[in-house]
Structures are given as C-alpha cells and as structure tokens.
Amino acid sequence: MCEGADETNWAGNIVYRAGRRVAPTSVEELCEIAAGCGRARPVGTHHSFNTIADTAGTLISTARLPAVFRVDADAREVTVSAGTRYSALARELDARGWALRNLGSLPHISVAGACATATHGSGDRNGNLATSVVALDLVTASGDIVTVRRGVDGDFAGHVVALGALGVVVAVTLAIVPAFRVRQNVYQGLTRAALLEHLDDIFAAAYSVSVFTTWRPESSLLWVKRRVAATDEAVPAPAEMFGARALDHPVHPVSGLDPIHTTQQLGVAGPWHERLPHFRSGFTPSAGNELQSEYFVSRDRAAAAVEAIHQIGEQIRPALHVSELRSIASDDLWLSPTHSRESISLHFTWRPAEAAVTRAVAVVERQLAPFEPRPHWGKIFALPPETIRASYPRAADFTALAGRRDPTGVFRNTFLANTLGLA
C-alpha cells in the first residue's frame, strides 16, 4: 500500500510535507485508507504549482487503481478511472470513433485532477474540461462511495470543480462526441493594435485559438486550430489573418525551443487529440523547467485587461518565458473560474526563478485588480482570500457542501483554509 511517491510537484517548486504516501490498488483499499486518516489529500500527476495538494497527513494517489474504460455509445458517455491521463483516454476514444469536445494544452495530466481544478483548453464555444463531466464516483472521509450525476443531484455542480475538498474521486464519466479532425496553423506578427481592435473576432476565428505573446507590440503568435471535414482538408488555410502571416515552418510557443515537442502545424489535418493540445504526449511539455500563473477575466473586459498587461510588459518580461491568451465558455460549476461568465484567460509561463516570479505576480495582480480576476486554482497567485471568495457567487454553497461531505475536515489543508476559509 505504501510507496515512495514523488516528493515534489512537477515543477519542483513544492516539496510535499506528507508523512505517509499511499497508492491503493483497489477502491476497497482506498475506502479503508480514507476512513482511517486524520488528514489526507488526493494527488494526480503533480502538475500544480502551489500547495493545493499538500498535506502533513496522507497523500493519496489513484494511479494504481484498476483501469476503467467503458463507453456507452447510446448515452454518448465514457467512464474512466480517475488517474487516467488524457493522452491514454484520447487514444482509446479515437480508436472507437469518439472524441472529447476539448483538451488542455498538455495531454499528460490526469482526468480527475484536471477537472477538479477546472483546467481547460481554448474555444469560444468550448467549456473547460470539467464541463464534460456528467457523473463521478467519490470516496468520502467516512470511507463511503458516493455517486453524483448531472440532472439527478441538485448539488452536482459543486462536486466537479472541488479542489479535492470533498474526497477522492475514483471514476469520472464524461460526455463524448463523434471523432473529428483538426488542422493547426501558426501566424506570426500579430500586433498589439490588431489584438486589441479585433480581440473578439480573433477568438471566434476557429474552433480553438491561442495568442502567444511576450507583451511586445509586434511579436505575438496566433495559433489557430480549425475543425475540418474530409472535403475541406485540401483547401489551403488563409495566408494572413488580422495582419499576421502564416508560417511555413513549425515553431515552439517559447522562442528558441525545439518545435519537435509541439503538435503538428502547417495545416496538416489530423485526429482531434493530436492537434488540440499544443504539446505531444511523448515529449516534455511546454518549457519543461517553469512556473505558471493564470487569471480569468470577463470577456467584456478582456481587451482592457490585455492592454493593462501590455503596459507592464517591460517589468515582467525578465521573469517570463511566454504568455498565452485563450477564450473559454461560461459554465454553471460553482468553483469554476468561468462560472457564469464568458472569459479570456491570461496565462503566464514563468522562468524557474521564484523571487523574480513573486515580484512579477504582484505586478500582474495589481494591474488586473480592476477586472476582478479569478486565478487558476492549481497555479501561482497571491490574491487576497476575501477577493477570491467574493468573486464566486456559490462559494458559501460550496463551503456548506464540504461541511456535509467532510464534516471533520479530513481532506482540508492550509491552501483550502487560506483561499476558501475551509479550516
């Protein structure tokens, strides 16, 4: 039952304090562990950049639970074990002619962990990954197994983006769609002026769109992922979009890094799961050695927020690898950063220099303060807890739900106490 799990997170900036690390091999074993813990936290693929998964008690991994993969074609659903990585799930689904509506930038992350933190891809009509959840199975602090389903349980929307505060998710059921094909083109030279003038049109231009920038006036890259039918694959992509020119060679989002790590570009059509992520599952994702922050602002204030960060570009650039702008559809999930508002996210991939990043984050948060930013739960931020709680209309409902599911606070930690008041 016990094993020497990783002692740090993916980036190496967090050392877990857990006195005990376990990876149960059955749900029954997990139930016994949960019922016997004083304090515990679930952990996925360690791809968080703050202390959200930290505990001085027991760190519980679901990676060794029996694999589950069950497609219900009539219901258009797939049920998978919580520790399943999106890369593995996508391959199995595509082989059967099915797909997920959306994927994150990295296919390396686990389904339960990504959904619990509202991790996301991009697309005006695409919700974050948690919006695909239609049911989940949860082991509570009492060792009981609870199943909740959309349309059946009134507090379902509080269970999905739950930050590990309600228990350990052991299985997730996701909505699926017929498999589709995507082609990806990258455009260079998107200017600050064009981005601000055409922001809504830029993000509406394709199924999934990202803007990579270092906050210089002329240097942004426009990444465009178009969903295509077989009859459209031979039609060339536009040579220019919003004044930016299509590249005839692949590039990495971070200048100077080898594009071999990225998914196929140059308009070559391929399966959805080999184009929607930015990075291939077999390679080191993103810049590798990095830290991350991300903030979500309402779509109707996005242009002003983007302009505000442009104004401090010189101040934050020494700590920055690259930033990414993405659009995400609104949803009803209580703790989703896109709850009840169409959003643009401003993502910052930082260099691995914690002191410099701390200073840069402070500058970014001051600039974004007028726009009521919501931080990504799994990334670096320093917003006041009262500010975070005030931005979520259902925060009090979630606190009440956590009190019912975990009345003795087994799955709480300092992070949850500081951000949500869950002591």
Report what the structure shows.
There is one protein chain. Helices cover 22% and strands 24% of the residues. The chain has twelve helices and 20 strands. It has helices at residues 27-35, 86-95, 111-116, 156-159, 192-197, 199-203, 302-310, 313-316, 354-368, 385-390, 395-405, 414-420, and strands spanning 20-22, 40-43, 58-61, 69-72, 77-81, 98-99, 133-139, 145-149, 168-175, 177-178, 181-190, 208-213, 220-228, 240-241, 244-246, 270-271, 291-298, 320-328, 343-350, 374-375. A hairpin with a 4-residue loop joins strand 4 and strand 5 (77-81). The longest helix has 15 residues, at 354-368.
Mean pLDDT, to the nearest integer, reads 94
- Spatial separation of the terminal alpha carbons: 28 Å
Low-pLDDT windows of residues: 1-5
Radius of gyration: 21 Å
Our estimate of the beta-strand percent is: 15-25%
Task: Please describe the topology of this protein.
Layout: E1 20-22, H1 27-35, E2 40-43, E3 58-61, E4 69-72, E5 77-81, H2 86-95, E6 98-99, H3 111-116, E7 133-139, E8 145-149, H4 156-159, E9 168-175, E10 177-178, E11 181-190, H5 192-197, H6 199-203, E12 208-213, E13 220-228, E14 240-241, E15 244-246, E16 270-271, E17 291-298, H7 302-310, H8 313-316, E18 320-328, E19 343-350, H9 354-368, E20 374-375, H10 385-390, H11 395-405, H12 414-420
Parallel strand pairs: 1-3, 2-3
Antiparallel strand pairs: 4-5, 5-9, 6-10, 7-8, 7-9, 11-13, 11-15, 11-16, 12-13, 12-18, 14-15, 17-19, 17-20, 18-19
Put the structure in a nutshell.
This protein has 423 residues and is an alpha+beta fold. It contains twelve helices and 20 strands.
